[in-house]
Design brief:
By secondary structure, this protein is of the alpha/beta class. It has one helix at about 1-25; strands spanning about 30, 40-45, 50, 55, 60-70, 75-80, 85-90, 95-100, 105-110, 130-135. It is globular, with a radius of gyration of 17 Å.
C-alpha cells in the first residue's frame, strides 16, 4: 500500500511539473515604463531561461536584467541579430547585470547560452534557448 501511495505521489508531482513547464512557456509581454523603456528580468539556470519567450515592441528601448541561479555551472545569455539591432553576449552571475538595446526590426530572434564543456552538448543544445519576439 505504501508503495502504491509513493508511486501516486511521484506521478502527481510529475504532472504538476509538466503543467508548470507549459505555463512557463507562455509569452512574457514587456510593458513600457513611464520612462519609455521596456524592462524584463531573466533568470538562467539548469539549461533554461525564465521567461523563455519575451515579446517587446519595435523601436522602443529594452532593458534586460539578467542573472543566474546559484551554482557553479557557468551560463551566459547571447543574441546575435545585427539586422534587428540586437547583439550582446553577457556572462551571467548571481548578481544581476543589465543589457540594453533598441530592436529596429520585427521578427523572432533566438537568445541562448553559448557555454559548452569539452565534447558534451552545448547548453543551447540542452535547451538553454529562448525567443525574443519583436512586434509592432
Amino acid at each position: 500500500m505504501k508503495t502504491i501511495l509513493a508511486i501516486m505521489m511521484m506521478l502527481a508531482a510529475g504532472s504538476f511539473a509538466a503543467v508548470a513547464a507549459k505555463e512557463g512557456d507562455k509569452p512574457f509581454i514587456a510593458a513600457i515604463g513611464s520612462d519609455g523603456i521596456q524592462r524584463v528580468e531573466i533568470v538562467g539556470g539548469s539549461y533554461f531561461f525564465k521567461p523563455s519567450h519575451i515579446v517587446v515592441k519595435v523601436n522602443v528601448p529594452v532593458e534586460l536584467k539578467v542573472r543566474k541561479e546559484p551554482g557553479v555551472v557557468p551560463h551566459n545569455i547571447a543574441m546575435n541579430s545585427p539586422e534587428a539591432g540586437i547583439v550582446f553576449d553577457v556572462n551571467m552571475s548571481e548578481e544581476p547585470k543589465i543589457v540594453t538595446f533598441t530592436p529596429v526590426k520585427r521578427g523572432r530572434y533566438s537568445m541562448y547560452c553559448t557555454k559548452k564543456l569539452l565534447f558534451f552538448e552545448s547548453h543551447r543544445e540542452k535547451g538553454m534557448e529562448g525567443v525574443l519576439e519583436v512586434v509592432e
